[in-house]
Amino acid sequence: MANSRQFFATFLLVLTIIDASSGFDYNEALDKSLLFFEAQRSGKLPWNQRVKWRGDSGLHDGYQQNVNLVGGYYDAGDHVKFGLPMAYSVTMLSWGAIEYGRSMMDLNQMGHVLNAIKWGTDYFIKAHPQPNVLWGQVGDGDSDHYCWERAEDMSTPRTGYKLDTEHPGSDLAGETAAAMAAAAIAFRPYNSSNSDLLLVHAKQLFWFADRFRGLFTDSIPSAKEFYTSSGYSDELLWAATWLYRATKDASYLKYVVDNAASMGGTGWAVKEFSWDNKYAGVQILLSKVLMDGDGGSYTSTLKQYQAKADYFACACHQKNDGYNAPLTPGGLLYLHEWNNMQYAASAAFLLTVYSDYLSAAKSVLKCPDAVVQPQELLVFAKSQADYILGKNPKSMSYMVGYGETYPIHVHHRGASIAPISVLHSTVGCVQGFDAWYRRPQANPNVIHGGLVGGPDKNDNFDDDRSNYEQTEPTMSGTAPLVGLFSKLHSMNAGYAAGPTRTKGLPSSYSHPKAAPKPYEKPGLPVEFFHTITNSWTVGRIAYYRHKVTIKNRSEKPITDLKLEIENLSGALWGLSPTHNKNIYELPEWTKVIKPGSECSFVYVQGGPQAKISVQSYL
């Protein structure tokens, strides 16, 4: 009877979470988050660029040093390409795709997510031309901040700064290795050759980071004022952990165990997870290894890692015997005065992932003040997401472009100046301050999906362009939201967003070429399995060969099945078109799908996959 009551209580809690989710459209929030990455692109923009007020920029980056550093991302409201937050953001995007790919597929967003990841990794490949060389920055923060101009009009120096054996940067090289390894996992079900290439770079960068140790800000001093690194030990553990997950090579697991104490992995108990501090991420990833039963002889050390993971989760959840992460009166995690919202976003994503890991292991979080169910962590993570989207004392969305009220004086050069399509003349370096920076009107361009710095410790917010601590958006703030919103959407949709766990393989997929099931809807007699079996590039366009398998999961034969296929731009084989637009039926030779049987069709197109649904059946 006690077990029944416990199950019923848990069931009610899950229902409460799902019902409460309906207040916000996480699908819309996810879509806008991905638009932000398009707004931050540097280089030659692609044909399918959706943010139209942006244009090509930084087309000669690196040429002064005879290296091609065109591409990548601007990190915030300026035009410097800082390597550390860029790499961290790519790691977060990739982790979100690994954990919540099914939800992304269901929302037809996986193509945009992979494009956002690849825009970063393509740049990292250029920036890593030799095993022991990594170009870690383009542009100078001081000269860049002297100007207020569009990226398309940049007149500031575009100097490149590199790391090598004489000028090491273990933190930056380690984070870039982690980004490449995580991206390799994310791409493996869709583009195995790209995945393999990313792993080559990840392994080389980790070896470089570990063999030649030092802080990147000692080698690139101009970054210190903007992204001061507190150390590199966490990035080395972080990179090794991601390489273990990507390769299952036990030498990487041995590395994090052998260096657990000396590098602080089992010593540091933290309340922050960010572009600078990766310890909590390492500890939670290694807790999964332990809970999956893969610890072996390393079990005792992995338990020490999990103890520190529990500390982080308990501190955020306010159950840590007084040693809790600070909250504003409105309930927002508050760790830093400058751009605090990014820390709340990162923590919310990490708690969501840990909740899923604990649930999969049928485990709980044992805090000093209480035993916490995994779903309770998810409730707390959701509270942070909802605060961001408008459930806060100001009733303001701190994600630009979402909701009815959001910041309109965002500290962002490109968003605050009329686009080239409207204002054809160049906006000069200093001219931009007088003509655009100081103007009281709202920004002419909405930088959708940008997560601004957010309110102060008392939930107060001043929407002023000069208030960069609160109104500047960052990549490292928005990146964790992609996975978080995907998970929260899946709660509304009524399925578990997490990956299928398969022994011996990275947990992002159950077969080397199998993608998660994106189209299954409750009550339908069929389910669809979507696989990308090949990809290639013609000119600037990447094409994918999609195979969709239709399985009859009912106990009755299915006849006269008609499918609606939207957003199809390429050729299709294995279905017959009908007289109705976008409606297809099974071919003559496959008019009946017997119980438990399946058939398939194939289509080829560039860009995101088509949306497939059942129109009718008998």
UniProtKB/TrEMBL annotation:
In terms of SUPFAM superfamilies, this protein maps to: Six-hairpin glycosidases
Protein's name according to its UniProt entry: Endoglucanase
Compartment list: Secreted
Q: Which PROSITE patterns match?
A: GH9_2
Signal peptide segment: 1-23
Top-level division of the source organism's lineage = Eukaryota
Sorted keywords for this record are: Carbohydrate metabolism, Cellulose degradation, Glycoprotein, Glycosidase, Hydrolase, Polysaccharide degradation, Secreted, Signal
Primary localization? secreted
